[in-house]
Amino acid sequence: xxxxxxxxxxxxxxxxxxxxxxxxxxxxxxxxxxxxxxxxxxxxxxxxxxxxxxxxxxxxxxxxxxxxxxxxxxxxxxxxxxxxxxxxxxxxxxxxxxxxxxxxxxxxxxxxxxxxxxxxxxxxxxxxxxxxxxxxxxxxxxxxxxxxxxxxxxxxxxxxxxxxxxxxxxxxxxxxxxxxxxxxxxx
Length: 187
Hints:
This protein is α+β, with helices and mostly antiparallel strands.
């Protein structure tokens, strides 16, 4: 019985993992404001391998529409600049010594709508992931009942707990999506 309660806690932890992945993906989506997390997914060709931008430079936000990228190694400035240009974020860095200034252009209404669609895709992927966790949990419970480890009443009660955890997680995904959508559409 206590092992099954731990199983519910594990399911909730896995569902929260899906939500944290969603938040991380959404933080990379551009809004009208500058954010250091915007450049996190960028990989730089450095020292013969691909490295995250955060391992070769530091990113600051001196103004609401400007990012400042301080490259630590002078020889890496052009590689960092190329990585930012090639990142499909629509950014054009300007080099000033070892510092790259990246202006965040104003988003058009059409681009905002595209970003909202991308955010919806990320949210749907999180919902699917949460449903997979629910399915795994219910399969485990059904197997335990079949093996005689729990009664059908216990199965019903535990299944309700799994469904409640799933519903709470889906509501949280919807709230995160709604917040990001408002942020993207704000002019």
